Amino acid sequence: MTRLYASAGAVVVNCATDARLLLLDQIRVNGERQTVAPKGRLEPGEAPLAAALREVTEEAGLTGLRYAGYLGREQYQFIDRDSTPAAKTVDWFLLTTDDATTAAQAGEGFTQARWLTPTDAAAAASHPGFVVFLDRAASIAAWRGDGPLPFSIALDRAVREIATAAAPLLAPHPAAGLAVCGSAARGDFVDGWSDLDLIAYGLPRFDDTTGTLAALVREAAVHLRVPVSLHIAGSDWRRVPGAGPLYDMKLQTALRRVGADVAVIAGTGPAPQPRPVQRDDTIAAMAVLQSFAAHRTAQPANDTSDRRDRARRLLSVACSAARLVALTLDSQADLRLPALVEVLGQRHQGAPIQQLLRDYDTFRRAGATDLETAEHLAGYAANAIDDLVRRLPTPTAPR
Question: What is the pTM of this model?
């Protein structure tokens, strides 16, 4: 039997040192020298985000850390010290700080902490499989720096406050968890524009924990002034009774990405295992998005708030359609907008959605504040989705 270990760690970006990355030099008990990022095993009842924050403080002496995103899950196998086969998962988070003062923990063999450029960090890292997470962190930091678009302090406060408050609420339910997804996990959250998207799963159907959790999230959204969307997965990992097809589609898509760009921030329940994506599932989901876009485009906007909400929703649905199609080409695709354009180019080069995504990415990096630009871009959303639907294969005829 394979022994299983769960760990978490972080790539820390120092915003005060031109986006340098933190690595630690270590001499292990067997004398091996290595250069690594802070990480360690989850303690009993501890969620991956809490473990990552704790490990950075313990191993590098850093405090004043801020959550900025999720970089994905590393998985590998090895032989344990007693010759037992073992497998480990490491959830890697993106954290930021403005303080370069570190104190490497000598008790665990760490000899120094270094702030390195992305190129130097990739060259210094001892484990080749980890470099992809360094590259992802550097790419997110560069995307923001090109704006310039600062990392969101409001997002950090919301994620950490909600995670801390939800942890004791979920503790009595070993199958339950709370995960962050969307732009808040991808690292491209934009203040004043993006929603903090959360998924709760594994909660008992007739337990009042769900209502308490929803109230907790609503209260946090109000006093932190961050729009929060909480999706509840039922006992079969699908939607709660009464939710609509768009809700169900977005929930299922997100649950399939746990460990890629969906991260558990509270609770310790195992990641849900929804059924594999089928071609006809994608076609049906695209039809839902197409219908929603047509409906929103036809709705009147009575004031500035309505206009802004309509533009946001239409652009969000266009991105959802693009991501669905991209996942049929590469199930582990990077779903940030610049990477999404490249993935779609594999099969749909020249599709209108590509230019819309490029322009929308430029708009977001500039701070997403110009309503007229947002409305102009949103005006192309329905047609771009229609074009993508026409490019899809014909649904399988029922037997």
Answer: 0.93
- Enter the tokens of residue 392: 């899809």
Alpha-helical (H) ranges within the chain are 48-60, 118-124, 131-145, 153-170, 183-186, 209-224, 245-255, 279-298, 304-329, 337-348, 352-365, 371-378, 381-391
- DSSP assignment of 135-168: HHHHHHHHHHHTTT-PPPHHHHHHHHHHHHHHHH
Q: Tally the residues of the chain.
A: 399
**What are the backbone dihedrals phi and psi of residue 360, each rounded to the nearest 5 degrees, phi first?**
-65, -35
| Residue 131 tokens, joined | 């470099």
**Three-class SS of residue 190?**
coil
Give the whole-angstrom CA distance, residue 343 versus residue 149. Answer: 24
Least confident among 4-18, 186-200, 205-219, 277-291: 277-291
User: Looking at the domain 3-145, which fold is it?
Assistant: Nucleoside Triphosphate Pyrophosphohydrolase (3.90.79)
Question: 360 with 378: CB under 8 angstroms?
Answer: no
The string of pLDDT tens digits covering residues 54-92 is 999 999 999 899 999 999 999 888 888 888 888 889 999
CATH of 153-267, one of 2.60.98, 1.10.10, 3.30.460, 1.10.287: 3.30.460
Bond before 48 cis per omega within 30 degrees: no
pLDDT band (50, 70, 90) for residue 277: low
3-state secondary structure of 70: strand
Residue type, 119: T
Q: How far apart are CA 327 and CA 285, in angstroms?
A: 13
Residue from 21, 36, 197, 198 nearest 109 by CA: 36
294 within 8 A of 382, measured Cβ to Cβ: yes
φ/ψ region of 192 (left if φ > 0, alpha if ψ in -120 to 50, else beta) reads left
pLDDT tens-digit series, residues 185-244: 999 999 999 999 999 988 887 678 989 999 999 999 999 999 999 988 865 545 555 556
